[in-house]
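Give me structure tokens for this 190-residue protein.
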Amino acid sequence: MADLGTATRALPLAGFHGGSSTVRLEAAPPAERISLRVRAEDVAALSGALGVDLPVKPKTSASANRRTALWLGPDEWLVIDESGTGVGNGLMQAAQNSGALHSAADVSHRNTAILVSGTGAAKAINAGCPQDLSLKEFPVGACSRTIFGKVEIVLLRTAEDAFRVEVWRSFSDYAFGLLSEGARDAAVKV
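Here you go.
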């Protein structure tokens, strides 16, 4: 009989890569993620426990200690831990130890991420996302929950020419395919 304690889930986009002359697409490494709901008066306690400041301004993110907190709503964040430990319960345990009233759900196995980079990255994403991704409107560190084609994503700009696209694993093939088409279109000179 299989030992379920050592089972590991295969990454949905393992080995996927692609793009064009102006866009690089690749699957992000495994990460731990929690969906977090917190009252305003408990933000400081949770920030301290998680080791990253939960941003309180719309469309912003904060990073520290290989963790990134993305503001999704007045009392809602997506917290991503890229420390390389993979899926675990570090974020959940840290939140629990905060002593603050909150709701946290481990969404590590629900989500996966696609890294999009290069001079045509914004154009590739705009193939399916109506959001203005100009640096003026969506600067480095900006994030939002938005639509990409027919699926919901959480989008984070990590550099002037780089983005992290968080998507539910069940939609990851679709999102990667649409990004691949957008990458080809971004490479075409008009």
